[in-house]
Amino acid sequence: QLQLQESGPGLVKPSETLSLTCTVSGGSISSSSYYWGWIRQPPGKGLEWIGSIYYSGSTYYNPSLKSRVTISVDTSKNQFSLKLSSVTAADTAVYYCARHARDGYLPGGFNWFDPWGQGTLVTVSS
Amino acid sequence: DIQMTQSPSSLSASVGDRVTITCQASQDISNYLNWYQQKPGKAPKLLIYDASNLETGVPSRFSGSGSGTDFTFTISSLQPEDIATYYCQQYDNLPTFGGGTKVEIK
Questions:
Q1: What pLDDT, on the 0 to 100 scale, is given for residue B86?
Q2: What are the residues of chain B with a beta carbon less than 8 Å away from any beta carbon of chain A?
Q3: Helix (H, G, I), strand (E, B) or coil at A1
Q4: What is the pLDDT of residues A55-72, one digit of tens each?
């Protein structure tokens, strides 16, 4: 059974860089059928897709965050990572990683997110 | 960006009631829509994909329909364990989510 687990600091100072890692177990991150994505949820609010990466390293980012986001993959460790720079209080959220289905026949090339990690709360505060 | 508008933002219904949630896309997205359930303090879970296909293991009281810009998610008989927030998600382009609908028991 595929499982994902987020890890990283729970507290980040304003203007610094948020760094999280997602470890995939029970399956290979190098599958040709999937991307691997990051989604966040501010406290009491809805879901926002941050970006997704293919095992080859190709990435897609939310245009609203693109200038600050870097997603990378380490296939040897079965992990992918998120870096979000110049954070502010508005970046305080639960950050989830998820498997992101790939479908080359679809206009966007993507489909559903499943499964998801349990999520990790990152607070931006001095 | 394709905007997804969900309504209502919250609802309260009795056990056994039929519950309907709508999701409207800002442009035609064919049937490129998924529905998720998020219970309090938990990660979202995929319930329905491609607008109307039930994910394996999901109870048959959940259903989805629609195409183009207008979509509907239905719980045919609300159960106490269905208390959650439900989100739609389009994948016609870069993925975006609806604002969510919080379902409570009356």
A1: 98
A2: 1, 32, 34, 36, 42-46, 49-50, 55, 87, 89, 91-100
A3: coil
A4: 999 999 999 999 999 999
